[in-house]
Amino acid sequence: MASLLSKVMFGASFVLAGTQLAGCDSTPEEGSLDITPIPSEVVWQKGSFRLSASDKLYIDAPEEDRAILGAYMQASPLKLQLADEKTADQGIVLRQVKTLEGITSPEGYVLRSNSKGVQIEALSGAGLFYGLQSLLQMADDGESIPAVEIKDEPRFNYRGMMLDVSRHFFSKEFVKKQIDILAYYKINRLHLHLTDAAGWRIEIKKYPRLTEFAAWRPSAVWKPWWFGDRKYCEQNDPRAKGGFYTQDDIREIVAYAAQHYITVIPEIEMPGHSEEVTTAYPELSCTNEPYKQGSFCVGNEKTFEFLENVLLEVMELFPSKYIHIGGDEAGKGAWKVCPKCQARMKKEGLKNVEELQSYLIKRMERFLNEHDRNLLGWDEILEGGLAPNATVMSWRGTEGGLKAIHAGHHAIMTPGEFCYLDAYQDAPSSQPEAIGGYRTLEKVYSYNPIPDSLTIEERRLMHGVQGNLWTEYVPTPEHAEYMLYPRMIAIAEVAWSKQENRSWPDFKERALNIVEELKQKGYHPFDLKNQIGDREESKAPIQHLALNKKVRYVAAAWSNYPANGEATLTDGIRGNWTYQDKCWQAFISKKGVDVIIDLEKEMDVKSIGADFMQASGADVFMPGKIIISVSADDKEYTQLAEIDNKVSRDGGIAFKNFGWEGKTKARYVHYQALPSKELGGVLFVDEIVVK
Ligand code: ACM
Fold first, then answer.
1. What atom of ligand 1 comes closest to residue 470's alpha carbon?
2. How far is the CA of 381 from the centre of ligand 1 (A)?
3. Cα-to-centroid distance, 592 and ligand 1 (Å)
4. Radius of gyration of the chain, Cα coordinates, nearest whole angstrom
5. 3-state class of 102 per DSSP?
6. 202 DSSP 8-state letter
7. Minimum CA distance residue for ligand 1 atom 3
8. In whole angstroms, how far apart are CA 547 and each of 168, 544, 621, 649?
9. Which ligand 1 atom sits nearest the alpha carbon of residue 329?
10. How far is the centre of ligand 1, averaged over its atoms, from the C-alpha of 269 (Å)?
C-alpha cells in the first residue's frame, strides 16, 4: 500500500487528518486509502465503517442508472443486496442530486463514510459509478472502509484507450475483460481501430466481402504476413486466421461498455490504411486492381457511396457521438496520376493532393454531422484544411492537437512519445519483440497534456487523453494485457487526476500493488517489480579524447532525428533504449555515417568505436560496412579498419559496437558506416568514442 504520507506530501488539497487530529485515537485505516486515479480531495475523519454481509445498497437515481449500478454492485466483490428504500441507517446510499458543492463535472462525486455507512452523491449515474469504483478500491480488504470525505472529479472529459483489432484480432470476451479494468480506473472511452490493411473486423451487411475475405489471412501472426506476401484469403480457406465482430457481437460489446459508463468509439479508416478494402472491392481504388493501392480513389463517387453506406451501418451500432474516420498516413501517390482524382481536383479547385484528402474528410464530416455525429480523426486531417467541426486526435507529437486548439477545435492528446503502449517498457533484451521505442511506466506517467502556453479558454478545448495499443507485434491476448498494464493505469491517472496531486514515487508504489491485484484477477501485466530500467551507458556521460571536439559531417545527418545537432557524436551523452530519446543521431542517406572529428592536436589513440542501434520493425538497421581511418593533416588518411557486417531483419532491438583497437597517433578521425546493400534503412549512432 502507498503510504498516506506520500499522498499528502504533494497534494495541497489533501488534508492530513492524522496531523489535525493529533492525539486522538485514530486510525490504523489511514494508511489504507488507496485509490487510483488519485482523487481530487480527501479529508480523513475518525473511525471506519465495518462491512458486513447484511449491508444494503440503496440507490436514488433514474431507473436506467439504478438498474446498471444495482446489477454492478451485486456482481461486485461486496455483493451488496439492493434495498427498495432506505430502511436501515446501516449501509451504502447512492444519490443522484441536482447540485453538488465543489463539483462541476457530471462524472464527479462526493463520498462520505463514517461508522454507520457510506453515502455517495453525484450529478449523474456516471458520477455515482465512479464513486463506487473508489469505494470498491477502499474496501479491497473486504472488511472496512475508513471514515473520509472524498470530493473527486476528472481533469478531462475524455479518458480513452485504443485497441487495434486489425493487426491482430481480439475476441469480444477479451474486449469485455478489458472494459472491467478500464472502468475500475475511471476510463470512459474505448476506441476500437476496426479496419486496416491487416484485416477488416466488423460485419457490414451491405459489403459481405469485407468479412468473407478481407478479415482473413493465411497467417495468425502479423509480422511474417506483412513482410511476406500480404495476401488475404477466403474465410472458408483452411489456412484462414483472423476474424471479425458480427453486428450482434458489436451490440454486446457496446451494451457491456455502457453498463460500465464507457462509450465505444468505432474507427473506420479512410482514405488510407485501406488495402483490405481496395483488394476486396478493387473498383474503389484508383487503378481498379487488388493488392495495389492502400488508399481509396477520391475521384470516384463509388468511394463515397461505400463509405457512407458503411458509416450508416456503423452509426446504427454505435451510439457514440464521435465517429473516428482515421485519416492518418494516406498514400497519395496514385491520386496524382489518377484521371478521376485529377478531374475532382480540377472541378473543386483543389491545389494539391492534401486538399484532395481534405475534400474527402470534409465531405465525410458533413455526412456525419447530418446524422448528428461528430468527426474525429488523426492529426493528418489538419493537412489541406481542417473540416469545420472536426476533433483532432494528436499522435505525431502534440503540435497537431495544439494547432487544432488554436484554431478553436477540440483535441484529444495521444502523442506517441507518451501514449503509444506498443513500445518497449523495459530493456529490450528482456522483453518480447516490440515495434520499437522505449516507453517506461514513468515516461507515460510523466505526461501532462496541458502545456503552460494554453490560455484558459484554450484549455477547455483540450478534451482529453488516450493510450493507444497498436498490435503489429502483439499477437496474443496475454501479450496485449502485458503491454497495456500497468501503463494504461498511468494514462488513467494522467486523464483523471489533478496535475498537482500526481507524484511519480507515489504512483509507482500503487502501481506495484495494482500489478499484483491484476495478476490475482487473471490479467497478465508487465512485471514492474523486476524492471531492469534504463540502458547502463545512458546513465552518466562518458569521458574520452573526442569529447566536445568538432565534428565535420561529410554526409549530413537526417534532420528528422537531429539529436544534439553537430555536437551529438562527441557530447559524451550516450543513448537509452530508444532512438527517439534525442541522444541518437540518424543517418538516412546512401552514404550513411561519414564524419571527421578534429582532436585539435595529434594524440596517442588506442581505440575508436561507435554503438549502433537496430530496431528492425521501424527499418532501423545496423550498418553493412564500417571504415575507420586517421590522419595527421586531414589530407592523407591511413585506414585502420574495414569491417563487413551481415545485417538481418531478425530480432527486435539490438545494440552493437563497431570499432578498432590498437596503437596509433591521430589528429583527425574519419568514421564511416554504410547502410547494408540488402536492407538499407536508417542508421542511428549516439557517440563516437575515441580513447
Ligand atoms: C497512427 O499511429 N498511424 C495513428
1. 2
2. 12
3. 27
4. 28
5. coil
6. B
7. 328
8. 47, 5, 26, 33
9. 3
10. 11
Beta-strand ranges (E) seen in 497-565 are 551-553
Q: Is the peptide bond before 415 cis (omega within 30 degrees of 0)?
A: no
| 359 Cβ below 6 A of ligand 1 | no
DSSP letter at 530 equals G
Residues 548 and 456: their CA atoms lie apart, in Å, by 43
Question: 149 in ligand 1 pocket by Cβ < 6 Å?
Answer: no
DSSP-derived 3-state class of residue 314 = helix
Alpha carbon of 582 to ligand 1 centroid (Å): 21
Distance CA 131, CA 133 (A): 5
Provide the pLDDT confidence category of residue 618 given band limits of 50, 70 and 90: confident
User: Is the C-beta atom of 378 inside 6 A of ligand 1?
Assistant: yes
Least confident among 41-55, 319-333, 445-459, 489-503: 41-55
Strand, helix or coil for residue 647? coil
Q: Cell 494514462 belongs to which residue? A: 491
Sort strands 216-217 and 241-242 into parallel, antiparallel or unpaired. antiparallel
Q: Identify the residue whose C-alpha is closest to ligand 1 atom 1.
A: 328
Report which residue type is found at 10.
F
pLDDT at residue 579 is higher than 80:
yes
Average pLDDT over residues 591-598: 98
545 C-alpha vs ligand 1 centroid, how far in Å? 42
Question: Using a CB cutoff of 8 Å and minimum separation of 24, what contacts does 582-585 make?
Answer: 583/538, 583/686, 584/613, 584/684, 584/685, 584/686, 585/557, 585/561, 585/684, 585/685, 585/686
Q: What is the pTM of this model?
A: 0.91
Q: b/e for 575-612, b at 16 or more Cβ within 10 A?
A: bbbbbbbebbbbbbeeebbbbbbbbeeebebebbbbbb
Distances from the Cα of 671 to the Cα of 516, 564, 574, 687, 689, angstroms = 49, 18, 17, 11, 11
- DSSP β-ladder status, 683-690 and 585-587: antiparallel
420 Cβ closer than 6 Å to some ligand 1 atom = no
CA 427 vs CA 446, 504, 536: distances in Å: 19, 20, 10
pLDDT at 284 over 60: yes
Tell me the average pLDDT of the chain: 93
pLDDT at residue 28, rounded to an integer: 40
pLDDT of residue 437: 87
Using the structure block, give the residue that is written with the C-alpha cell 513500445.
423
**The C-alpha cell of 218 is what?**
493465411
Q: Are 664 and 628 in contact (CB under 8 A)?
A: no
Q: From atom 2 of ligand 1, which residue's Cα is the shortest distance away?
A: 395
Does 507 contact ligand 1 (Cβ within 6 A)?
no
Q: Residue 141: pLDDT above 90?
A: no
Using the structure block, give the residue that is written with the C-alpha cell 511506466.
Answer: 441
Amino acid residing at 259 = Q
CB of 329 closer than 6 angstroms to any ligand 1 atom = yes
Torsion of CA 376, 377, 383, 388, to 10 degrees: -10
Distance (Å, rounded) from C-alpha 566 to C-alpha 66? 64
- Comparing 175 with 21, which gets the higher pLDDT? 175
Q: Which residues are catalytic?
A: 196, 273, 329
- Which atom in ligand 1 lies closest to the alpha carbon of residue 416? 2
Which ligand 1 atom is nearest residue 468's CA? 2
All three cell numbers of 83, joined, read 434495498
Q: Which residue out of 166, 196, 329, 392 has the highest number of ligand 1 atoms within 8 Å of its CB and is therefore the one to mutate?
A: 329
Taking the centre of ligand 1 as the mean of its atom positions, its distance from the CA of residue 576, in whole angstroms, is: 24
CA 401, CA 392: separation in Å to the nearest integer? 6
